[in-house]
User: Fold this.
Amino acid sequence: MKRLAITTEAYLHNGLLIATAAALSFLLLAARPPWLFFGVTFTVIAFGAFLFALLLIVSALQRSQALDPAKTHLRLALVVWWSLLVSQEVFSRYTPEAESFAGHFSAAAYGEGAFWAVAFLALLLMPRAQYLRQAFSGSNKWLSLLALVCLVSAPFSPTPLYSLAWAFKLLLVALLLLLCSATIHDLNDIEAFFWANFWGFVIIAVVPVARALADPSTAFEGGRLNEAASSPTGLSLCAGTLVLLSLTLNSLRNRTWLVGFLILGSTVMVMSGGKAGIAGGIASVTLFFVLQKRFAAGFGWLMGVLVLGCIILAVTPLATYLTAYHESGQLSTLTGRTELWRAVWPEILQRPIVGHGYLASRFLSEEVEGTFAGAAHTHNGFIEALYNNGLAGLIILVGIHLVIVKNLWRALKGLSNANARVLAAGSWAIYVNLLINGLFNATFGGAARPPFELLLGLVVVSEVLRRNAHLPVRLSR
Assistant:
């Protein structure tokens, strides 16, 4: 009877997906609007169709393996999660702060927002409504409170439409994580979550490099790897995260090809020249090895990065950038960050409880005197939350960090096998990497971009690790 129920549920889910995709396709083709096969609209349709195709394939594979519904729903949720991670590269764009402040957004921005709605539709079609019952219990409550506070405060920002769009994505991320929380039961499920993030960060780290190198004459404009839609600091962080995911999964699976992504991530991390990204990457990878008492391997990686850095300095203009940076005296102000924080603080004191509205910091250069041109956030995750959502937002963000630290600490103390220690060490290293970068950038507390999404994912991962640290990881072959 249980097998019959699982099969029936799977067929119903497939039917919903197919019926929805078919109905939307018929309506679009029947109407034949002139914009259907033009530019961003076609990208939204193509990527949306790709998402639904992946969902159908995964659903069919899970049904053939006769997995229980929780496993099936987790795999489907991870497909949607992956699509959200990579959507920023599919709809790559850069809009100056002045244009955004005036309400002039690129077509790609609207396209990405439309895709978020498609992803939300895919989530709604997953028949798993009971996961919402745990939305305000345990560690989950911090995810739910964060999404609700940002959604409520968005209309009070200088550009409500922009803030509401990002608040909607944050709500979608929270809903996906609530579903993951209800379906991640063992360490194998945590591994699946790591794989979904690994393939997402592969695209996030590789695509900007490919775009930059497409025009070698401007690839290193300014001395470090330059790509208009990706900041060097953000790219260094994402590449460092790819290194950590590669290390963790390779330690579990011992796959030689993962070493290639480890080298690729390390190269991009250094080549991008993001100082916080490089420092955070080196510190977190070192921590990964130290937590497992693999000191020789850690020392070998550090020597490898040192050699790699010397080669990059020799063959790229990165050395010129570092020299110019040192001579400019920006180090004393952390590239203007201390001056920015000094200018923002009086604004925070004006509205300390509720803040200025979700993502109001996007327009600091337009609204706050004393900020540098192009300041699109406060360059500190905690100040970001305080400026946007006041003490309410800061308390929630601090709660998220404390939950992750508490769960990972307890998990590390209760480990009983090597595989569980690898997952805990990887989670610790990723958290430390995000934390270090968040002290100098809006890695968390602002827009729900991949690093912030992964930090929120660690809330779920750390909770499951704490509960299951004593259980072995049964790796499937």
